[in-house]
Amino acid sequence: MSDGASDLLTALRRVDExxxxxxxxxxxxxxYEPSHEPWGVVHFVGGAGFGSYPDLAYGSLLAQLSEDxxxxxVATAYDLGLDHDNEARTVGERFENIMRVKGWDGPVLGxxxxxxxxxxxxxxxx
Length: 126
Known about the structure:
Radius of gyration: 15 Å
Structural class: alpha/beta
Strand content: 15-25%
Number of strands: 5
Oligomer: single chain
Shape: globular
Largest sheet: 5 strands, mixed
Order of helices and strands: HEEEHEHEH
């Protein structure tokens, strides 16, 4: 096997290992935690379509971010619809519930992709 193919297989194995680190703590809420105590929390909301499956669409990114930055990443899913205010409330309530359950009170950074960014913005305006 060539070095390039070997490197690709090694990288894919690492991605698979990170995907297994996702922890669905409740319906539609996935947590990625670093190997040590997190310094803060990233609330991630994906884009239209992909936002319904953040573990599959963004899992590798969030696992890498969690480990490299040392923060916990909480990805909240939502059902794609036209009532964005309602979806923003749902995403926000799911996130706040996890913060209470986990007892986290450190700094929070909201990160969204496309519609996810809009939902985070709508939630912050309430």
